Amino acid sequence: MLTSGDDGRVCRDIPDSACREEAGNFFTHITSLSTTKISDGLIDPKLVLSWLMTTLGTPTWLIGLLVPVREAGALLPQLFTAAALRRLPQRKWAWSVGSAIQGLSAAGMGLAAFLLEGKTAGYAILGALAVLALARSVCSVTYKDVLGKTVSKSRRGTATGAASTVGAAAVLIYGALLTVGWVDRMSLVIGGLLLAGGLWMTGAALFMTLEEEPGSTEGGGNPIESFRDNFKLLADDQQLRRFILTRGLLISTALAPPFMVAMGTNRDEAGQMFGGLGLLVIASAGAGLLSSYVWGRLADRSSRKVLILTAAAATLALLTTLGLNAAGRLQDVWALPLVLFVLMIAYQGVRLGRSTHLVDMASQENRAAYTALSNTIIGTLLILGGGFSIVAHMAGEAAVLGLLALMSALAIPVAMGLEEVQER
Q: Which residue in 71, 98, 128, 372 could disulfide with 139, CB within 3.0 to 4.6 Å?
């Protein structure tokens, strides 16, 4: 059912020996990746951890470091670690170790929330998040390489899309529980952190069962030399430059939600605002549940078109938000959830489209380097995106959303210049 419509296509872009194991590997990817998708939702720094640290009495300046620590720690180290990871003929082991460390870090956050409070709790949670982010960087730089070696070109987007759907369904239930308040929120959040820890470790164990063929180990040299050599890829590959520019413009889909929530809830009391953030969890998970599998299937046919469509959807969502705000309707009960839902559909499409495009654009020899280079550049841009907070403070959320809408709109013509890599 998951791979229907492939018209009997044989394995593409993987060896015949890997093709024999592809069916089992396909479902191993779905199950192990599903555990990480659920865990990501259970510890969401923008929502869950910020609520947790606020409730524990952590200073605001520490709470403001959550997203930068997560994004910088997960993306910036990759350009330096890719060369060392390249020495591993089987990179599933690196992903499994990284997933297990993320699990221990999430459990550590739960224990810190249970035992500590105030600034001490904030330091402990931030420290655990930094370790989690570094471990995540290892998983990120190795996953696409393993996916490209173990799953056929025609089914990679389907695997990641199906896992995103499973994760979104679980997080949707979690968001509903946070919103209705049937369970004490502090107990639910701490329990969610501990559950995330267990799920990450389960995913690590499952991933070890992949039948991964040993791959090339060339390129595992000095990190500084690799840093320089990887940047040379930008000069040599025009399509890589265009892809990174497209992905850079589409970080608007990741940066916009907090500003949308602030704009739509700025007249509420703090407690009511957390209810609005709970609705953001539901909107995000619902969008993922309904769209991830569809985006994955579309990406297997044309990741280029997925990026174009998601850029258009993001532009529409952000311009609609500005229009509703100008009309004084954004704080209506239906308005903010609606525009957030559309933006989150675009966000899910961006994630699946750019992931599938990068894997299919690269070869087995340069896939890890392309992934590390792309993620490092985007990680830097996300950190610089913290400057939008200054713009919001000086000119308001509407100015920020206008700039982000412009970025999304510019991504459309840039993405149009990408090649149809699925037709190679």
A: 98
The type of residue at 79 is L
In 3D, which of 373, 243, 260, 234 has the Cα closest to residue 322? 260
The whole-number average pLDDT for the span 340-365 is 88
Short-list 293, 330, 68, CA closest to 167: 293
Q: Are 325 and 267 in contact (CB under 8 A)?
A: no
Amino acid at 194: L
Angle at 254 between CA 64 and CA 46, to 5 degrees: 35
Distances (CA, A) of 78 to 82, 227, 349, 414: 6, 10, 23, 25
- pLDDT tens column, 156-211: 777 777 887 888 888 888 888 877 777 777 888 899 999 999 999 999 998 888 87
pLDDT above 50: residue 382: yes
Give the number of residues written for the chain.
424
pLDDT at residue number 223: 55
**How many CB atoms sit inside 10 A of residue 307's CB?**
29
Hey, what amino acid is at 295? W
pLDDT digits (tens, 9 = 90+) for 222-266: 555 666 777 778 888 889 999 999 999 998 888 887 777 767 764
Tokens of 149: 């070696």
Q: Which CATH superfamily hosts domain 18-210+221-423? A: MFS general substrate transporter like domains (1.20.1250.20)
Those residues whose C-beta lies under 8 Å from the C-beta of residue 168, and which sit 6 or more positions away, are: 37, 41, 284, 285, 286, 287, 288, 289, 292, 348
